[in-house]
Design a protein that fits this description.
about 160 residues, alpha+beta, 7 strands, globular
Length: about 160
């Protein structure tokens, strides 16, 4: 497999959709889109990039402890929510195959998240990639089954 072919530039299959439009076009990522908007990160993830986004599904957000999502979405927690979401983004356009070769990834919030391969798919800080390699004009999105909350440990529910 030629991994570099999947990581260099958008292909014709990416169309004109950016990362946020790619998420919005998939019914499983509505909560992620709302969180990006609430965190003030719309311009970032709609911008030039390229970025690799590990987007929690709506089901992943639904598994958060009671009150956690509502607390993060409050305007007074905008900075904390942005930190959480930045923990789901890395610089560059990286396929699931690329990420699977690594031991860890450094996210936009500056934290290092461990990468583990299981059943041929990577997991990032315990969040399994369930829908890999959704390409867009400014990066690539991987659906994950868990919200990574490293940065939100101090937020009250």
């Amino acid at each position: 497999m030629n991994i570099s072919a999947t990581t260099t530039s958008p292909t014709a299959a990416t169309g004109a959709r950016n990362l946020l439009q790619t998420a919005a076009a998939n019914a499983s990522y509505k909560t992620f889109g709302k969180a990006v908007e609430a965190a003030g990160m719309t311009d970032t993830l709609s911008g030039a990039g390229p970025f690799t986004v590990f987007a929690p599904t709506d089901a992943a957000f639904g598994r958060l402890p009671a009150g956690k999502l509502e607390g993060l979405l409050k305007p007074e927690h905008k900075d904390e929510l942005a930190a959480v979401l930045k923990g789901h983004v890395i610089n560059g356009r990286k396929s699931a195959a690329d990420i699977g070769l690594w031991k860890s990834v450094k996210t936009l919030n500056g934290q290092s998240s461990p990468v583990v391969m299981s059943d041929g798919r990577p997991s990032i800080d315990g969040a399994q990639v369930t829908e890999p390699d959704m390409t867009s004009s400014n990066g690539i999105m991987h659906g994950i089954d868990k919200v990574i909350l490293q940065a939100a440990s101090t937020i009250q529910q």
